[in-house]
Automatic annotation (TrEMBL):
Residues 45-130 form the X8 domain. SMART domains: X8 (SM00768). It comes from Lithocarpus litseifolius. This is X8 domain-containing protein. It is found in: Cell membrane. The keyword Metal-binding does not apply. InterPro entries: X8 (IPR012946), X8_dom_prot (IPR044788). Pfam families: X8 (PF07983).
Length: 139
């Protein structure tokens, strides 16, 4: 008596199950990718401090964003995760972007009296060519 029919049936069943599991996994990954995409079809964008803006103007805009503007600036305080680099430009960029992301859905802009600009390049992934070295909140 030969077992070849049993082996063939087992192998065929095994590959059907594996193929089915693979397709389900692939379908789940595709669905997850679609869900994680921005629903409005736009690219991600950040509001950052304009490199041409003097530090005194950045400070005014930073104070507005963190005060009346309603940005959450708690993470750029001393010993907090986004405090470093401790420069006017970096802290202003954080505050501007926090404000913009928080309120753009209700019409907020990235203007800050011409101290800011929109970029589609993730600022956390860009090497900075020039940077203001004005220290903030020194102790």
């Amino acid at each position: 008596m030969s077992n070849s029919g049993y082996r063939l049936s087992f192998c065929s069943s095994f590959w059907r199950t594996m193929s089915s599991a693979f397709l389900r996994t692939l379908l789940a990954l595709l669905l997850l990718t679609l869900i994680l995409q921005k629903s409005d079809g736009q690219f991600e964008e950040w509001c950052i401090a304009d490199e041409q803006t003097p530090d005194d103007e950045l400070l005014k805009a930073l104070n507005w964003a963190c005060g009346k503007g309603g940005a959450d600036c708690s993470k750029i305080q001393v010993n907090k995760p986004c405090y470093l680099p401790n420069t006017m430009r970096d802290h202003a960029s954080y505050a501007f972007n926090n404000y913009y992301q928080k309120f753009k859905h209700i019409g907020a802009t990235c203007y800050f009296n011409a101290a800011a600009m929109i970029t589609d390049l993730d600022p956390s992934k860009i090497s900075k060519k020039s940077q203001s070295h004005t220290t903030l909140f020194s102790t």
